[in-house]
Amino acid sequence: MTLAPLLHRSDVTVANPDLLPLLGRTPVARIRTDLPHAHPGFWAKLEYLGAGGMKARAAVSMLTAARRRGELRPGAPVVESTSGTMGIGLAFAGQVLGHPVVLVGDTELEPAMRQLLRTYGARLELVDRPAAQGGWQAARIARLREVLARTEDAYWPDQYNNPDNPAGYRSMAAELIGQLDHLDVLVCSVGTGGHSAGLVGPLRRRWPRLKVIGVDSVGSAIFGQPARPRLMRGLGSSIHPGNVRHRVFDEVHWVGPAEAVDACRRLARGSFVSGGWSTGAVALVSAWAARAEPGTVVATVFPDGPHRYLGTVYDDDFCHAHGLKATAPATRPLEIPHPRAAEAVGWTRCRTVVDPVAPVPVPGGAPLAAHVPAPGGAV
């Protein structure tokens, strides 16, 4: 069977480099809202106030570098897998540099995000079922390869493994160094691994004793837990992205969707700045870090704003349907000695960070705890 081309020669995106000054240059805000208890406060970089959100930095970096190397021809289409946020960044980069953008998503992608991506000129291909191994991400990548095969001159940035993804966050590191007098603790959500890998090097050169906390989703395989169905999108992964630099993290926290929702809603009511799953997760952990070590300066990144999440995080019916408001929020994480010592089903902390593709024996051979299903269905 011959597949019809997804794009035609008439599909032309005119470059608009005048948009480039809108990239980044985002402020930091001091967050003091109870999360869920009082804390001394932490700094949050508000990436939703930059055009295209946080991942526009990586998108512009990846496409610019590919053009410089001759891998991406002028006007050629860009094809990428996304759960949403990178899609917005690539839509921005495509307009800046003059490339049509095809995004491979899945049916868990919120209707509002689908509309937004199409509004920005991106074309969507949606897969309707997760792969048996690797979940939605593996299914999207399989479809992506089909799209590449039928799209002339198409370029795949491969955000999961492309070193130009982390390179895009050097500008954010420079901004943070200019905005903060000192920094003791950096809290990073981890999905593709791009912004943590890009930030830590420059920030540790400025502040050598910097502690880095990774924040993952329950059900994510990134830090050695078993991959399970996940409700949260934008952090966590059921595959092992090459851009995750496990060695830069001092500890990792897994956060559940109910805890992220509670933090997001508290932020919105108390600080007038909020976001989605990743924002709630990092805010919860940042407040805990500021509380646990009084006198330390803690900073994090809020990757995007609340708007795409109005039908999920901020929707009472959605939250009740998924059991996200049934229990009181956790006030501190459970502690486990090793990622394979127990399976995280709620906010959990581990000070042993391992790369799961280079297995390390579990001390004492402790088995995983019995699995408790997480709410939701996305993988």
TrEMBL record:
Entry keyword set: Pyridoxal phosphate
Tryptophan synthase beta chain-like PALP domain boundaries: 21-303
Transmembrane regions: none
Swiss-Prot/TrEMBL cofactor(s): pyridoxal 5'-phosphate
Presence of the UniProt keyword Cytoplasm in the record: no
Entries under InterPro entries matching the protein: Cys_Synth/Cystath_Beta-Synth, TrpB-like_PALP, TrpB-like_PALP_sf
Pfam families: PALP (PF00291)
UniProt cross-references to Gene3D superfamilies, sorted A to Z: 3.40.50.1100
CDD domains: CBS_like
Domain of life: Bacteria
Name assigned to this protein: Pyridoxal-phosphate dependent enzyme
Species the sequence originates in: Streptomyces chengmaiensis
